[in-house]
Amino acid sequence: MDTYGKLYLIPTRLGDNPPLEVLPISIKKTIEYIDNYIVENEKTARRFIKRITPSKSQPSLKIKVLNKYTNIEERNTFLNPCLVGVSVGLLSEAGCPAIADPGADIVRLAHEMNIRVVPLVGPSSITLALMASGMNGQNFAFNGYLPIDKTERKSKLKSLERISSEQNQTQIFIETPYRNNKLLDDMIAILQPNTKICVACDITLPTEYIRTMSAKEWKNKKEDLHKRPAIFILKKD
User: Fold this and answer.
1) CA-to-CA distance for 102 and 98, rounded, in angstroms?
2) Is 13 helix (H, G, I), strand (E, B) or coil?
3) Where are the alpha helices (DSSP H) in the chain?
4) pLDDT band at 1, cuts 50/70/90?
5) Which of 18, 66, 95, 118 is the most exposed place for a label (fewest CB within 10 A)?
6) Is the predicted pLDDT of residue 134 greater than 90, yes or no?
7) pTM for this model (two decimals)
């Protein structure tokens, strides 16, 4: 294992701001010496690498694409360079790798292959939203996407609200950006009037908006969230 390369988990920006405004210098230093990458989208990954290290040779990059179309047999070869001493970077499309991101499969594979995993510091919209929400940061759950079906969504929101109250647990979830406004409308209509709702969108960007209010208060103070990346949080005391 000591002679193996490492798997570096490399966070990226949450938007199009200058990389070193939101990323530590360790990201730049790591990208400067790594040529092998696993990414979700090759075009945007190359653009990011060029932005953070303009002098790096693009032809030298060896990029593997990991998305819903990647078959398991191909995926299982992505860390083979590590077996001959070459480190690999798992580069997120936005935020931190393996957090609401397909990279978790690669991290699990690395552990199975006895390859050292090195997580690097960077922005996570989930944790940043929780930090700014004023809700319980000692006990929380990330639930991914809620059901699209209206009846199922209503049931899920009621369930999360009940769990939040019974376990003193903050509930976090996301939505496809073009359905953000509909989700907020549903939350306002379905949740108890005193249940707290936090909406955090465009995190780290100039248009950043983070607000926590009760469901009742949100009725008259809604923000247009259409097509803006957002995190939704609820907490019932």
Assistant:
1) 6
2) coil
3) 19-22, 25-33, 42-52, 72-75, 80-83, 104-112, 125-133, 150-167, 180-190, 215-218
4) low
5) 18
6) yes
7) 0.92
Token pair in block for residue 13: 């920006």
Contact residues for 168 (Cβ-Cβ < 8 A; gap 6+): 136, 139
Quick one: tokens of 25? 């210098």
Tokens at residue 208, please? 């950043």
CA distance 22 to 209: 17
- Give backbone dihedrals phi and psi of 187, rounded to 5 degrees, phi first: -60, -45
Judge contact between 212 and 197, C-beta under 8 A. yes
In order of 69, 138, 220, the CA distances from 30 in angstroms are 28, 32, 47
Cβ contacts of residue 155 below 8 Å, gap of 6+? Answer: 147
Is residue 206 a contact partner of residue 13, using CB atoms and an 8 Å limit?
no
Nearest to residue 174, comparing CAs of 188, 164, 158, 187?
187
Q: Which pair of tokens denotes residue 236?
A: 């019932």
136-153 per-position pLDDT tens digit: 999 999 999 999 999 999
pLDDT at 162: 98
